Amino acid sequence: MGRDAVATSLPLELGGGLVLKTAQCPADLERIAQLHGLAFDPAAAVATRVLALGYPGLRPQDFSYVEDTATGEVVSSVCLVPTVWRYEGVRLNVGELGIVGTHPDYRRQGLVRAQMRWFDRELEARGCHLASIQGIPFFYRQFGYEYIIPMGHGYELNPERVPEPLEADAASSVRRATEGDMPLLLEYLAAAQASLAVSVERSAETWLYQDDPAREDDEALDTYLTLEAGQPTGYFRVYRREMQEPHRQGVVIVEASPLPYRSSLAALRLAKELAANRRYLKAIRLSLPASSPLMWMAAYLGGRWQQPYAWQVRIPNAVRFLKAIAPVLERRLAGSFLAGYNSFLRIDLYTDTIELGFDRGRLASIRSLGPIESRAVRLPWWAAWQLWLGHRSREELCAWYPDARVEPALQPLIDVLFPKRESWVFPTL
Ligand SMILES: CC(C)(COP(=O)(O)OP(=O)(O)OC[C@H]1O[C@@H](n2cnc3c(N)ncnc32)[C@H](O)[C@@H]1OP(=O)(O)O)[C@@H](O)C(=O)NCCC(=O)NCCS
Hints:
Number of domains: 3
CATH superfamily of the largest domain: Gcn5-related N-acetyltransferase (GNAT)
Distance between the termini: 34 Å
Bound molecules: coenzyme A
Mean pLDDT: 96
């Protein structure tokens, strides 16, 4: 079997003495960690160990790797981290492509491409609704990924612009959250995400893993609780360690519940204190949904807007995804002037046409018709994903892509089913 083979079982011979396998034991994970130490830097070896040994529910078999049988060395690896996102309350199983790396001497030989076939089969076997990656620019487009949910950057705020406390601020305080705060934190997380279309679902276990004081990798987080007159008002989270990469310099506030005014200022003051000890940049970065009150505060205080990056997302099976979100689509329809809609909607993705059958407002059937031409609604598949996930409106997509077209009479239906909405996915790993 060669590098292009779509194998049904592993190990798989890739030719040239290279074999594709999945990890089976901690010793394999350690070899993978050492590979990432070489593919990236020593910090990546630490990050791999933390993820592989600590992420709740992750198994050795969730890591694939390529071994050079001549040396016994691991020369490339990818990882599927099972995470859960929410689409207006509906749970979506997501396969997040974790640490991806190839030894410098083995690059551009198709080793990641071979493992992406394993990854895709795993997505199918696990019934994943989405695949995601917080990855390097462009590379994953080659595997059918599209930039969809914004992430990173946001505002950069000069700490000098955070005002000193007034008398009225005396009752506001901030303290490190503890394990005992977890039920409250989970409530605040729900409040933080209530207005978002797509968001993350996080267990207490994953939260504690992210905040583990023993963690020494760059993704470790610290959670702070804000209080007024001793009563909790919300929380925010920062990366424990600063990194040299521009988007991780300074203090990065990467998650927050909607904080009241004085708690927002208290949070920014705490960030200002932390920023004073940062090495690369003594600044505060807010990497949060634009609707977060902390973002408004940063804007009022003169923060500089920085264009966000984005999650790279793939919908491996359109029918499976649309079936999962069908209750949301039915709810949107019921709340609109199209309530009781009773017909078929065909969406031609050019590679496949998906038919949604409505029966008095209920989505009675969703099926693939194969690559048949259907002119009423035509969207290249990546544009359809942007629409379905609420990232861009029908109007924006049709203005941007000459091959995206929706017949005028069907435009209201598409707009009601797939409105543009804000999404944000707080840290998953
Ligand atoms: C990026 C990286 C993982 C690619 O690994 P690889 O084993 O060389 O990848 P492959 O050979 O399977 O490449 C797949 C395709 O991408 C292309 N490609 C490889 N590296 C690329 C890069 N850096 N940018 C764009 N395309 C690239 C290949 O030419 C190939 O195209 P083809 O199949 O059409 O011929 C590897 O260069 C690496 O480890 N880099 C450092 C760590 C890193 O950045 N990891 C990704 C973090 S998200």
